[in-house]
Amino acid sequence: MANLTISKPTRAGTVEGEFDPKFQGVVDAFVENFEQRDEVGASCCLTLEGRTVVDLWGGRVAVDGAAWTRDTISIVFSATKGATALCAHIAADRGQLDLDAPVTRYWPTFGQGGKEEALVTMMLDHSVGLPHLRSKVKKGGFYDYDYMIGLLEREEPFWKPGIRNGYHGITLAWTIGEMVHRSSGKRLGAFFLEEVAKPLGLDFAIGLQADQESRVAPMIYAPITDEVRNSRVSQAAVKEKDSATHYFMFNMGGFDANSREAHAAEIGSANGISNARGLAGLYAPLANGGELNGVRLVGRDALQRMALCSVATHEDATLRIPTRFSLGFMKAMDNRRLDNAAHCSLLIGEPAFGHVGAGGSLGFADPECRMSFGYTMNRMGFGILMNDRGQSLVDAAYRAIGYRSDASGVWAR
Fold first, then answer.
1. Does residue 44 surpass a pLDDT of 80?
2. N or C: which end of the chain has fewer CB within 10 A?
3. CATH code of the domain in which 351 resides
4. pTM as predicted
5. What is the mean pLDDT of residues 259-288?
6. Domain of residue 336, residue span
7. How many structural domains does the chain have?
């Protein structure tokens, strides 16, 4: 059946795009986000068996600003980590990078201060012990790749690598980024552009060119409410001054997500610039055996390893909630019943893997149903993982293809 088109006014602006009628529920949820959940500007895209079945955008690039168009892009924060992890898995699949090897095989100067026995897998699953830096990051430090590499080389780990995990919210940019660089000979941004974005035709950059800056919708930060202040992660950050959580929240070197410097830098954990079409397109081959339309990213064995849960904990050392990760990707996480942890869940299928970005952006692949998903927005929600806007779209997508319930903590048939 041919896709339908939509052009529907909402209180925040017009929703446009096209969709397979089977996914009317996703369209309804997307419109409802603008009408009832204070969405400002956003995009949503789904593929099923490699075919685009939803491609929507709407609202405005700023409150009372210009319309969000088909080609509007925005920073996707930690959803970038999925792209970075994929680059490492591609290098591994080609025999350039051994994921089970010591980090020092590729990066000898990393092996100091208690990190001598760290493995590449530990960098991917957030167990290597560098969830952030105790050393004060200079202003603009995140924009200086070589400076950050030097800090990480000298930093002592928060725990012996491998014995526990804690979300490496920023530092993954340089731990995994340098694994890609040293094993392939290409810096992460160039590797991603040449080996992933260009072959797949993705509108997705890690290091945005200046001539694309006018297309970027700036982020609208979430307000600091009492619920935010009383959350587990906020309380730990304020009260535990020498914790990974504290440094993660307060040692950011003046990072400004809306600055040209932030967009231009190579921060593979946090500054990818894309839209929903780019995120869904990134994961579409991974939902279909690792290859799509003649572009092969990884083989089936590598794909299986990407999907397997590598670590799970009752309390992440950084985020202070239960988390589950495969090698570089988030798995389903159900924290709906946890006190002081609103918006700290990600409800997807158990075989699925992907990554949430701060404020609620999301990209993932579900190989079981051969679906890929992308959602971006410019008004950030609070909470560590998904808020009602993005999760409502995920829920509608699973229902559209016959999934029954998420009561178990994952979407199931």
1. yes
2. N
3. 3.40.710.10
4. 0.97
5. 98
6. 4-400
7. 1
